[in-house]
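Summary of Year 1 activities. Much of the first year was spent building the evaluation harness for sequence design. The harness presents a backbone, in tokenized form, and records the residue chosen at every position. We chose the following record to illustrate the format because it has been used consistently in internal testing since the harness was completed.
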């Protein structure tokens, strides 16, 4: 594996034409799938159950080409489920059933030694604040220790501060673990809206500076339809989507395209432009992971001597 993605996958039911349609999603898993679609060898570290919904997830992930050797199956816990509806502007509302999911126990179910070995073997590890949110404190600490060891060994750690208030017991707790995660990350993929809600920092330049001061060398600040800021310069989308159909997974798509292109040696600005393109494609389709088409997953930039890995 070039990339190991650590996080939660869930079954998705989305409202379409008075019907609920079954699909799947999860922030880290969405990004992992986009990476795999770009041809990046990507593995998933998570835990699911042995129920029918969990079998569905495993089949979908395998069909997308993800390495599932670090996916644990629990006989005692099932996978999470969420329901999603969108309004006329494509904005989402969610209802979750995940409080007792297997993914909340992913560290002990996979095993710390096994998870650490898989992370050490990858060139880049990708995770998010959602992953930390669903874990108990002891497992949060264990995961960050694993990431710190990978960083010290020369590996890359990419982190998305995907802040979801309902997952946290308090904003103060979320901020504490957010800061801890910045201390182990080398690539930051924050969203301005999330950072403003969590930390009160509401300018792209200030978000990037906050992350860099804490040791994150490369920071791409996502701004939704406005594009992203890289090294103090805006990278706007080439095509502005005026009426998105479904904004689910847009930031995850940006992350997948950005990391895939950086792994292939593209500059940060080129990678951000690719992220904008894929995010724009996703929001014009329903679901966190629309069915793959050839157009948005064309070849990444060829490997160059300047590749980040």
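For this record, the design step produced the sequence shown next.
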């Amino acid at each position: 594996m070039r990339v190991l993605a650590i996080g939660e996958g869930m079954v998705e039911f989305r409202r379409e034409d008075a019907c609920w349609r079954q699909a799947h999603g999860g922030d880290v898993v969405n990004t992992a799938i986009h990476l795999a679609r770009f041809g990046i060898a990507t593995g998933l570290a998570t835990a699911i159950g042995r129920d029918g919904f969990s079998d569905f997830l495993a089949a979908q992930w395998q069909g997308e080409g993800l390495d599932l050797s670090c996916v644990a199956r629990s006989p005692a816990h099932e996978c999470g489920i969420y329901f999603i509806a969108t309004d006329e502007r494509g904005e989402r509302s969610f209802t979750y059933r995940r409080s007792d999911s297997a993914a909340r126990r992913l560290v002990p179910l996979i095993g710390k030694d096994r998870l650490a070995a898989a992370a050490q073997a990858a060139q880049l590890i990708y995770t998010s604040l959602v992953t930390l949110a669903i874990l108990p404190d002891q497992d949060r600490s264990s995961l960050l220790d694993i990431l710190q060891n990978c960083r010290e060994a020369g590996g890359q750690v990419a982190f998305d501060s995907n802040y979801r208030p309902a997952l946290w017991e308090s904003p103060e707790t979320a901020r504490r673990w957010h800061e801890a995660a910045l201390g182990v990350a080398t690539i930051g993929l924050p969203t301005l809206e999330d950072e403003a809600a969590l930390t009160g920092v509401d300018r792209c330049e200030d978000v990037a500076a906050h992350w860099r001061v804490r040791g994150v060398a490369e920071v791409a600040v996502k701004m939704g339809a406005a594009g992203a800021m890289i090294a103090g310069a805006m990278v706007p989308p080439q095509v502005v989507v005026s009426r998105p159909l479904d904004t689910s997974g847009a930031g995850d798509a940006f992350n997948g395209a950005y990391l895939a292109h950086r792994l292939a040696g593209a500059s940060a600005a080129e990678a951000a432009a690719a992220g904008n393109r894929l995010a724009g494609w996703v929001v014009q389709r329903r679901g966190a992971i629309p069915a793959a088409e050839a157009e948005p997953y064309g070849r990444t930039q060829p490997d160059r001597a300047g590749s980040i890995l």
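The two ends are 13 Å apart (CA to CA). Quantitative recovery figures across the full test set are reported in Table 2.
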